[in-house]
Amino acid sequence: MDTSSQVGMRVLLVGATGLIGGHCLKALLSDDQIGVVTVFSRRALACSSPKVRVHIVDFDHLSDHAKAIDADAVLCCLGTTHRAAGSPEAFAKVDHIYVAELARLAAARGVPRFLLVSTVGADPRSPVFYSRVKGRAEADVSELPFQAVHILRPSLLLGERQESRPLEDWSQRLAPLWSWFTWGPFRHYRPVAAETVAARMVELAKSAQDGVHFHYFDD
Ligand SMILES: NC(=O)c1ccc[n+]([C@@H]2O[C@H](COP(=O)([O-])OP(=O)(O)OC[C@H]3O[C@@H](n4cnc5c(N)ncnc54)[C@H](OP(=O)(O)O)[C@@H]3O)[C@@H](O)[C@H]2O)c1
Fold it and tell me: Average model confidence (pLDDT) for the chain?
């Protein structure tokens, strides 16, 4: 049953404890068109809004929570790093397997729109492992029978994290210089604020555009 006209849009947000996901959560909570935000997270959230329903989920057993996937749009901001995950396989499990399984369950539950944060350069045939994993996740999501799939491909994300990521910290300091060199065909590689990506995701979740779409810096 479509209850969106009664309670506003229902959104499932995955990755709400992360940089982009945290900004998505804030944007969704302050948006009057959004009625319910279901969050799948492996840990508790510091959020007391009556709009939010948090499900603590073991992502190795996502299908146990399939019934809670009852939404007009899924926003997937999941992701990890090789360092945090501990191995390339563990990284691929989060950035590809969990994403693909989430999308498969959402499609089976009849969710019309799926939004995924991927990365610039994602390509299932890339010789670079990171880009290949992200490309495989994109390919799996794109093949599912959603009305609309929006894949956002940011470059370096700008924003404050609680955890320390030395390489990203340095890259953020060099961001103005980096932006200066990335023009013409390299514009897609410009650093972008995580808050901007999140705002765009929420906008796209509400849009009526059908089909598979890729979104870059200029967008
Ligand atoms: N960082 C960049 O510059 C950059 C650039 C381009 C694209 N991206 C992509 O953008 C997306 C979002 O990035 P971000 O920086 O916002 O991510 P982030 O801050 O690292 O947050 C990632 C989210 O994924 C969850 N997660 C990680 N490992 C998990 C696991 N094993 N099981 C369940 N949940 C897990 C985290 O939960 P916990 O809080 O519980 O860990 C968190 O909610 C990612 O796909 C990333 O690859 C990032």
Answer: 91
**Host domain of residue 35:** 4-157+192-215
Q: Report the CATH number that the domain containing residue 210 is assigned in CATH.
A: 3.40.50.720
Q: How far is the CA of 94 from the centre of ligand 1 (A)?
A: 9
pLDDT of 3 over the 70 cut: no
Q: Cα separation of 213 and 173, whole Å?
A: 31
Could you give the angle at the alpha carbon of 60 between the alpha carbons of 54 and 65, nearest 5°? 40
Residue 16 lies in a domain: yes
The one catalytic residue among 51, 93, 98, 134: 134
Q: How many domains does the chain have?
A: 1
Q: With a 6 A CB cut-off, is 76 part of the ligand 1 pocket? A: no
Asked if the model's pLDDT at residue 167 lies above 80, the reply is: no
**Structure confidence at residue 69 (pLDDT):** 97
